[in-house]
Amino acid sequence: MKYCLLGALSALAILSGCSGRGVKFNDLSTNAVVPQSLQNRTLWTDVAFPQYKMSVLVGHVLQRATPTSPWERRDAQLLPNDFSMEPELIEDGAFYHSVVSSAIAMNGNATIPIMQVAAKLSDDRRLELTIEDSAMLVVESKQIPRKAIEAFLRKNPRKPGTNRVWVQGVMITKLNYKQAKETSASATVSGGAFGADGRVFAKNETMLRDVYITMLLINLDDIEDNLGGPNATHSVMGPMDVFDYRAEVLSKDGIVGIPPKK
Questions:
Q1: HSE (CB half, 13 Å, CA atoms) of 204?
Q2: Domain total of the chain
Q3: Domain range for residue 126?
């Protein structure tokens, strides 16, 4: 006996081990808007060790030939005393879910490394994609070892044209996705099927995963330039907010240009 299961049309329809003619799928929405924060994230490309031990990155000074070059090396690790290397798990960290096609590459999204896995899809392929932040290890702003950073910069001036940063925090971002290939509504499928863009796609049962390492950085060049200037008593920091990645500039007295709270 053949059983045909037709799930709610607003969800992914399941056609496990059934066959039938004229099965109609309502199209799922595709290519949901990519969060702006993804475009502003700075990634560490070699995830082999940091995904299991974020302490190999946090607190390190990174150097590259120019502000747009790949990172070339790690220098000293500067951390506050008694800093805990225990990562913080992020609950409900999923912030993106969509069926995506290669059209996701439009509007510059192909330049976002995290989205390149979808940008290379052929026309008959789709991905059911979920992106989530899962864990982070961050030095709180009030714990930033300012004196140690200043001492390092005075002792190790940067070479002209190079760029150095200090890693205030590291976050693990996971991609979970299932691949789907175009099929017909009457086909027998084992992993489920869904409608998208006026077509039917059979979904692979296997969940694939990929990992990215997002870094929360402080631009050391700004601090180094400021140390010799008229505001040498102020340690100018340039961290980025860990949640929406807004550039901020901090000093010992508060945000630069804004009086500290009394």
A1: 14
A2: 1
A3: 36-254
